[in-house]
Amino acid sequence: MAALKLKKGSNKHSAYNLRDPNAEVIETHTLAVVVDNEAGVLARVIGLFSGRGYNIDSLTVAEIDHLGHRSRITIVTTGTPQVIEQIKAQLGRMVPVYQVHDLTVDATSVERELALFKVTGTGNDRIEALRLAEIFRANVVDSTLESFVFEMTGTSEKIDAFAELMNPLGLIEIARTGVAALARGTV
Fold first, then answer.
1. 96 and 15 in one domain?
2. CB of 74 within 8 A of CB of 31?
3. 74 and 18 in one domain?
C-alpha cells in the first residue's frame, strides 16, 4: 500500500531502480461502479479509499437510472495489480454496490473529460491562444477584451497538453470534470 503514495519523483521510481526485479509495477485503472443513489453511498465508497490509503486520480458521479435510483461512479486510481484487485473486491462487497467493472481490464473503453480554461492576454498571446484552441478543437464559450474561456472535451492527455501550451500565454484557471468512461462494443 505504501507504493501508492509514491510520486514520479520519488526514489522508488528513480533510474537506479529500473533494473530491480522486485520493484512493484504501478498501474492506472478506470473503474465503473454502479451504486444505489442515496445519501451516504459516495461517502462510503470514498471512505474505502481513504481508510486504506488508496489514491483517487479522478472521480465522477451521476445518476444513470432515475426510476431505479442508481448512480454510476467512475474512479481512476493507481496501484499495484494486487492493490487494484483488493479495491475491486472490497467495492464488490459493499452493500449499495451492484456492479464493479474494471474498464482497463474488462474491455477497451472510451474515456473523455471536459475542461474549461480561462486565459488572459493581449496582442500576439491572444492570437496564439486562439490559434492553438482551433488546433485542439477547443470552443470559445466566453470572451472579453482581456480574456477567453475555452471549453474542450478529450482524453486527459489532450487536456494536459492544451493546458501546458496555454500556460505561457496567460492560463489563469482550469476546471475539469474528471474522466467519464464506457466500454466499447456490446460489453
1. yes
2. yes
3. yes
Backbone angles phi, psi at 22, to 5 degrees: -90, 0
Gap between the Cα atoms of 187 and 183, Å rounded: 6
Q: Which of 38, 41, 33 is nearest to 76 (CA)?
A: 33
- 63 lies in which domain range? 2-106
Same domain, yes or no: 166 and 179: yes
Domain boundary among 88, 106, 124: 106
Is residue 102 located within the same domain as residue 116?
no
The residue written with cell numbers 461512479 in the block is: 73
Burial (Cβ within 10 Å: 0-12, 13-18, ≥19) of residue 174: middle
Q: pLDDT of 7-66, one tens digit each? A: 333 444 444 445 555 668 999 999 999 999 999 999 999 999 998 889 999 999 999 999
Q: Could you tell me the CATH number of the domain that includes residue 100?
A: 3.30.70.260
Which alpha helices (DSSP H) does the chain contain, by range? 41-52, 81-93, 103-106, 123-135, 156-166
Phi, psi torsion values for 133, nearest 5 degrees: -60, -40
| Cell of residue 79, nine digits | 496501484
3-state DSSP call for residue 24? coil
- 136, HSE (Cβ side, Cα atoms, 13 Å): 28
Helix (H, G, I), strand (E, B) or coil at 141: strand
